[in-house]
Every structure is written in C-alpha cells, then in structure tokens.
C-alpha cells in the first residue's frame, strides 16, 4: 500500500455518482484515497457503486446526498466526513448543471440554480474544509471549471459566468494558501461524453435528423480541434497529478484539457 500516493487520505468529490466526478473519484481511490461520494441517483445503484469501488480499490467509500444548493446540507456533509473519516484532505468541486438560452430569455430560477451549484457550492465546501487543511498543513482543492471558464459560448451565460467565477475563486484561494502545504487549482475540460453532453448530442441528432455518431462529430467539429472527447479517466489522471508532491508549486492554475479548444 505504501507506494500509493493518497493512502490514508480522504477525498470528497461532489457530483460523483456519474460522469467526470465518478471518473475522478475512481482515479483517487486507485491511489489509495478513501472516497466520499455525493450526487443524485437511484439509492440502490449508489449503494452498489460504493460496494464496487471499495472492493476494486481496497478503500473505504461513503456517500452523502447533500443538495449543493443548500449551505446547511453542505455543512452536514463536511461534518459527516469528519465523523466518518476524520475530515477531508482532497476536495474536488465537480457538481454542475447546465441550461441553454439567451440572456433575455433565461429563466431566473435556472440562473440562480446554476450559480448556486456551479459556483457558490465551491465557496461553501472550500471554507468548511480549509481549517482542517491548515491545521495539517496539507490539502488539495481542485475545482472543475470548464473551457467555459476561459472562453464563452452563446446561450450559456449562467454557466459561463459561474465557471469564470470559479476560476476567480480558485486564484484568490490559491493566494490565500500560497505559503502553506495546501494547493488550489482548477481543471477546465472541453467536451467530455458525460450524460449532460450526451443529451446535447441526442438533441442535436433529433433536431438535424442525423445519427448520434454524426451529431457527436458535428458537436466536436464546432469547438474541439482534436475531434475526440476528453475522457473522465484522463481528467482523473490530471487530478491525481495535482494531488502529488510533483505539483506542490502548481497553484492557482486553470489547466485546460480540451483537445485544443482554447488554443484557437
């Protein structure tokens, strides 16, 4: 076990019952971290997921169903991590939702929900885990932003605003912890084939009367020069690097993994 870089550490990954969050949780578990999952889904499937991860990686896996729009529930989840594991050493703020409409047609409640989940929740989790990280003089906070934290797309004002805000939070938090053993960084994925993006593909296929495969290619052709999706496993490997000693002077970065999207 000694060669695993995160043995004895605990990782909380928000929005980790599927997609990117689950990919990152798996990668951290593979390095020996105990994992606290969070997210929505069928309770039996989540129980099975916990059991599978624990068995596959030989770590402890727990789950908390905190609604990331509710500060009191976020606090309850951090307290639960304290009771169960002694606290959080690696925080991955991944929970996110999306809605597409022009600003003048954007539903106010959708704006509020996106800002709450994609941005404000990261403020709450960070403020609550930092005291213990400071006491231990070790911690890793990784915020899952997006290429939309760096550039914009029409129709995604709330998401773009939240992800730009998340990069601002990352930088400020990195400066506040700069002289400590805590690092704070952001990962900015391009298109990843998550359930969220699959829905965009399905909608496009239906709208344009094309196959799912053609819709995927069209979606990527718009933005992602590599023509390939980023995978949750690739993002997980980057998260593991950011947790390692090799990355201890990587502070306040917005690291895009996007098939060349932002290079254009």
UniProtKB/TrEMBL annotation:
It is an enzyme of class 1 (oxidoreductase). SUPFAM superfamilies: NAD(P)-binding Rossmann-fold domains. Keywords: Oxidoreductase. One of its GO terms (molecular function) is 3-hydroxybutyrate dehydrogenase activity. Signal peptide: none annotated. It comes from the Bacteria. Its EC number is 1.1.1.30. It holds the Pfam family adh_short. The keyword Oxidoreductase applies. Belongs to the short-chain dehydrogenases/reductases (SDR) family. NCBIfam families: PHB_DH (TIGR01963), PRK12429.1 (NF009093). This is 3-hydroxybutyrate dehydrogenase.
